[in-house]
Amino acid sequence: MKTRSVRWLVSVSMAAWILGLPAQPVRADVEPGDRIDKSNYEKIEGLVPDFVLDWVKTGDLTMKIADLNFDAKQFFPQPVKDNWQANIGRYKIDEHNGMIDTKTGQPARGIQGLPFPEPDPQDPTFPVMLMHNYLINENFLQGTIKEKLHWLIIGRRGLEKTLDLDQYYTQFDPERSEYDFAQLTIFRQPFSMAGTGTLAIYPLYPPNPGVRYAYTPELRRVKRLSHRVAGSDTHFGLDSAPDDSWCGGPKTNIDEGTYRYLGERDALVCYFSPDSRKIDWNKKGELEMGYAKTGVKHTLGFEDKAWQGAPWHIMDVVWVKSKVWVVESRSKNPNYGYGPCEGWIEQGTFLHAYKRITDPSGKLWKGAYYPEQAIETPDGKFRLLKNIAWIQVDMRRDHGSTLCGPHREGTYRKIFAKDVDPRIFSRAGFIKFYK
User: Cβ(395)–Cβ(366) under 8 Å?
Assistant: First the structure.
């Protein structure tokens, strides 16, 4: 009788223990067609950085899971494909985080295609190789670029300010210039900034000097500055800093950065669409993306009356399961405003997916993600996959800034632009351009 009582008590205790267990967590995995929100956020745990998981958990973000209807690894322009094999092992990273051409022993110039098409994760300089692949993809594979952008500064109550700016990018012939590429930026609005502009002329090799010119209507003259910028300092009311335009560390001061490879993992990567977008050459030989040309316009949270989440997210994007490399970056400059930053870089495309930013004490401060878009001509002879948007959130301010790329009314992006006078990328041309 005593034994039976003991068994009964054990059974009751076991039942009470089982009933007291929390519900079985949802397995961290997703399928195309899933809609991930705060009711099932556990499904993306480990597939996104912690700040993105928190956005979904709190209802700030929902994610539509999809498969791509194209092979992202095939969306390299022809120069990348043509020089793939030739570039394997041709370039190396030196102590300045610069690229050296092993054929000449000199700093690399006139690179055709990607400098590191098959980087080795076992190489200590592997993360820096990934950064240079991004720089080349950003500045050297699209000819001269002309674009109009809208930076949206957004608080919890909605849109606060729009920065309207024109930008031009070009590359220089290494036989004719000591520099490698240039960027010219002009602000059109708000009125208080209208007419302010900068021209930055960069070398690929970090120790080499570059130059930057600035013009403001108040000064009515051009002032020369260092091409190196305080890349961790926010500006113009944005939540982002210049170094947040990629997921690495110092960008114009790349020699001040130190990198560590943290490993690879499965991840969800943001794309504008599961399909490539078709655009054709115009009569000038340009490719133009943008709302006026394509009719594609993306909606932000503050524009959707039914949306209850954060107003700075883009509503009509998809999230695709992929693989990423994760790297950590730091700056050797004691005055740098950030602590360790973590970057997630998509394998196969070398595009940047996320940046996790901490303060100097190592506490989470900001988070960014970079939607990708694939474009191709109808005949499939030209293809390109690019990060053309950027969403950044300052978690301390509970505030966001969104760059939607050319997918807003009044914005556009032309690559291989023919109507840009190359003389504007010089001091004299810059002054004349303003006059």
Answer: yes
pLDDT digits (tens, 9 = 90+) for 24-44: 444 568 999 999 999 999 999
Tell me the C-alpha distance between 204 and 179, whole Å.
8
Cβ-based burial of 322 (10 A; exposed 0-12, middle 13-18, buried ≥19): buried
Query: Does the model's pTM come out above 0.85?
Result: yes
In angstroms, the CA 399 to CA 312 distance is: 8
Tell me: do 22 and 138 sit in the same domain: no
d(CA 330, CA 340): 5
Q: What value, to the nearest 5°, has the Cα angle with vertex 239 and ends 235 and 245?
A: 80
Contacts of 108 (CB under 8 A, 6+ apart): 91, 98, 99, 100, 101, 115, 204, 205
The SS3 of residue 42 is helix
For 52, the domain range is: 2-65
The answer to whether the beta carbons of residues 276 and 376 sit under 8 Å apart is yes
Residues 33 and 101 in one domain: no
Q: What is the pLDDT of residues 296-323, one digit of tens each?
A: 899 999 999 999 999 999 999 999 999 9
Query: Could you tell me how far CA 12 lies from the centroid of its own chain?
Result: 56
335 bridge partner residues: none
Sheet of 91-93, strands arranged across: 91-93, 99-101, 106-107
Is the preceding omega at residue 127 within 30 degrees of 0, hence cis?
A: no
| 364-369 and 318-331 strand pairing | unpaired
Within this chain, do residues 17 and 155 fall inside the same structural domain, yes or no? no
What is the model's pLDDT at position 75? 96
Last residue of a domain, one of 65, 100, 117: 65
Domain CATH for 257: 2.50.20.10
Nearest to 269 by CA among 348, 214, 201, 331: 348
Contact criterion met (CB below 8 Å) for 182 and 209: no
Number of domains in the chain: 2
Residue (of 376, 372, 363) closest to 391 by Cα position: 372
Q: Give residue 151's identity as a one-letter amino acid code.
A: W
Q: 143 with 7, same domain? A: no
Q: Is 46 in the same domain as 75?
A: no
Q: Which residues pair with 167 in a beta bridge?
A: 147, 185
